Amino acid sequence: MAKYSICVLPGDGIGPEVVGCARGVLDAVSAAGGPQFAYDEQSAGHGTFLEQGHAMPDASMAAAKAADAVFLGAMDVAQIPPGGGDPLGDMRIELEVAASVRPSRTIPGIPSPADDIDCVVVREVTEGLYSRDEYQPDDDTAYAIRVVTREASRRTARMAFEQATARRRARGARSDKSARVTAVHKVGVLKLTDGLFLETCAEIAKEYPDIIYETRNIDACAMEMVREPGHFDVILATNAFGDILSDIAAGLAAGLGLAASACIGDRWAYFEPVHGTAPDIAGKGIANPCATILSAAMMLRYLGEDAGAAAVEAAVLEVLADGQIRTGDLGGTAGSAKMTEAIVGALNL
Ligand code: ATP
């Protein structure tokens, strides 16, 4: 029986609640004969900063590096003052994350603005406009440095093409959706940075001749995502553009309560829901646990546990489609525990 070590960082707000729900589902997968998990729960986030003076203590980072995968709740990073630590930013660097992967799709039974979106945004997460390299030479002027390197672009592009390959395999031969990677840019303005990004993406594309490769200006891409969401399969983007497009995709699909994500590198990876700490509902036991449970399914797939991942995803979809048990954000009255119980009940392993 496979056994994996999982470093768990519950974080702030609803983080610990939704992580607890996802662990309940993973435990049910184990109990049904699936893989076993050894959890190492560690502290990180704003609460950790208040208690320990740093939001990502060395012990937590060491535990993250020692584990087979890292599983996060949510962290109130906006509240952490400069110098207090940046758990997500630090992990992206220390865990050598190649890209963030955020799938969005229409879910049967859940009303959404788009009825045929099924895409994944693969986004570079260590540089670009979020390089954190800013300066202000005087009171009236401030600069942010947009950094694009060939190495990070190459890693992100490869992740995009690998996602397109895996998605096509998962869809099967009967699907009429094309395997496609759309690289997003504004090269007419950002001639050097996006020039380098596109040049690198085109090089990687040559290694995947059976996947359609195309490019779009960021503005045109945003509009086309709204008008013709079904066109997109894998969207490949630099940091800030990808950040915005992945929220458009989540909004067009089933919304934040169902949006899962992963940050994956060659040696390490961490998994987390897209939503934040939701302080307005924290501690009430009413948070929608599905985004975190779907993030756990992404973690299972990363660990090579495809059957477990598919079973968890199917259970979530079944409960959502059935519609009787739903949290408040989806128009229901169930709490997090009841929704989790229903998902565990629907697991078929
Ligand atoms: P943060 O500063 O940590 O990003 P936020 O409240 O600004 O927190 P989110 O946490 O993403 O941003 O929440 C945005 C809105 O969506 C809030 O009203 C929140 O209650 C709701 N929300 C987010 N996640 C969930 C969830 N899992 N279940 C139900 N509602 C949620």
Description:
This protein has 349 residues and is an alpha/beta fold. The protein has two domains: 1-101 and 258-349, Isopropylmalate Dehydrogenase; 113-252, Isopropylmalate Dehydrogenase (3-Layer(aba) Sandwich), CATH 3.40.718. 40% of the residues lie in helices and 21% in strands. It has eleven helices and twelve strands. It has helices spanning 15-31, 46-52, 58-66, 87-94, 150-171, 193-205, 218-227, 239-252, 290-302, 306-322, 336-346, and strands at 3-11, 36-41, 69-74, 97-105, 118-123, 134-138, 141-144, 180-185, 212-217, 234-237, 260-265, 269-273. The protein has a ten-stranded mixed sheet with strand order 2-1-3-12-11-4-5-10-8-9, with helices on both faces. Strand 6 (134-138) and strand 7 (141-144) form a beta hairpin. Helix 1 (15-31) packs parallel to helix 11 and helix 7 (218-227) packs parallel to helix 8. The longest helix is centred in the middle third of the chain and has 22 residues, at 150-171. The chain is globular and about 55 Å long. The two termini are 15 Å apart. The mean pLDDT is 95. The structure holds adenosine-5'-triphosphate. Adenosine-5'-triphosphate (ATP) binds at residues 14, 18, 74, 76, 78, 256-257, 275-281, 287-288, 291, 327, 329.
Largest sheet descriptor:
10 strands, mixed
- Largest sheet: spatial strand order: 2-1-3-12-11-4-5-10-8-9
Total count of domains: 2
Please provide the ordered H/E string of secondary-structure elements. EHEHHEHEEEEHEHEHEHEEHHH
CATH fold field value of the largest domain? Isopropylmalate Dehydrogenase
Report the C-alpha radius of gyration, rounded. 20 Å
Return the average pLDDT rounded to an integer. 95
What's the number of helices?
11
Poorly predicted runs: none
CATH architecture of the largest domain: 3-Layer(aba) Sandwich
User: For the terminal residues, how far apart are their CA atoms?
Assistant: 15 Å
Cofactors and ligands: adenosine-5'-triphosphate
Helix content: 40-55%
